[in-house]
Target: Phosphoribosylaminoimidazole-succinocarboxamide synthase
Amino acid sequence: MQAPPLFATHFPSLKLKSRGKVRDIYDLDDSLLIVATDRISAFDVVMRTPIPDKGTILTQLSLFWFDFLRDTVENHLIDTNVAAFPASCAPYAETLSGRSMWVRKAKPLPVECIVRGYLVGSGWKDYQKTGSVCGIALPKGLRLAERLPEPIFTPSTKSERGAHDENISYEEMAHRIGNELAARVRDVTLTIYEKAAAYALSKGIILADTKLEFGLVDGRLILIDEVLTPDSSRFWPADRYRIGSNPESFDKQYLRDYLVDIGWNPEQPAPELPQVVVHNTRTRYLEALERLTGRGLNL
Model:
């Protein structure tokens, strides 16, 4: 029997550090507990209706990619086996199982690291107006969803809760975090994208773009938060990809399209999602997991 979706955690004996759009983070003194709920957001707004098993799918995908990238960049993961977590977590083992990560504390960088390999979404709108994406000039005549001549790195601010991220130039990022660290972040972000995109394509999936987050531990750059999930990336089925049209996707673009179609304004309260939208969104997330990892949902 499928467990009810988890919208929010409630662990009275643990210290809640923050609730993000999707994750609840608990402070375990010298480490953190990250719990992926089944909440889903679109246009920076958390929907009122959760997507069953979404948090478990995101966690399993992140674990797959952390392992895949272990020789590329260090990450914050300590363990995912609830039995190995600190004793304070034991009363909540059933809820935590499959959807939580025990991780090292890091000093998060105040930027989000975005790499785009295809012309779509806000990048397409920017290109239509300016011929550029986030200030990076591109060749004339590119079409919607076309592959870029080479992937581009387009950082953004990491917003405070309730605010919107804003695109910034590489130079602005370097001003905020320093030239040496900025170059390292840019280079490792592009390397991660190129390795992951090549692997995904071997599984019939185009990785159109992705967003990564990094932090520092004892001065070392490490990958934190989630990595290469449908919440932070655009995944397209390669066999149905067509230049000039918005591709089908294995991510929450389906939900965004639904919200646009019903005329919802992000300034309004989030609507309840009909069950067909919930089901179809879950199906897309699950297919991404199955294609990329070769495994189904491990509940």
